[in-house]
Amino acid sequence: MIKSKKLSLQNNISHGFFDKNGGTSKGIYKSLNCGLGSNDKKNLIKKNLKIVKNKISKNSKNIFLVHQVHSNKFVYIDENFKFKKTKIKADAIITNLRKLPIAVLTADCVPLLLYDNKKNVIAVIHAGWKGAFKGIIKKVVSFMLKNKSKPENIIVAIGPCISQNSYNVKEDFKKKFIKKNKINKMFFKIKNQIIYFDLLSYVKFQLKSFKISKIDVIKIDTFNEKNNFFSARRSLKLNHDDYGRNISIIMIN
User: Fold this and answer.
1) Domain tally for the chain?
2) What angle do CA 135, 139, 140 make, to 5 degrees?
């Protein structure tokens, strides 16, 4: 489990970015696969989620997850929220409830953990290029600010994700971003006639546009096998028919 230095200074919360070690899954899912959407054995995934929950807090509620769909939708959980068995389709969660671990799953996309240490509100965001492009970060931060959060009180930890050097894209991908905003050109570089996209900087830039300055970036490339994270791109390169998911989690104590 990797921790953010900035979030670790906050006594009211527990958090962690988990790699693929320390679980019960086998084969291509070895070993801490937390993706219920994967084809791994469901009983093993549930055991893995319990391992993660116990690392955060043994006496907390079950980890709250959403059905991630690369959208700009989020769910807000307060004391009036009605928990249902069916998962909500969304890519971010915000809550002010104690002892409720909230988490996102990633396998190259950017996981973000947010904490407002004055309002005692937390959020998690799954930001792949589609979600970031559609404005998932903007939606979550705007909601927090509308609910009396201030940018100077929001601390953000950006977890392990694919690095620019591992993220080659096609020309039409680049054009799509530049068409939306010319400033997006700075998130692309060309090396040996190959275009590379900097998803991490794109996400960070969006946070900074809200004047959020307390940002902790954990610079670990999930695509690089030696870093021990699940990676959708690496699995595709290795011709695997599926892949495991990394979990990033936060909870108000």
Assistant:
1) 1
2) 120
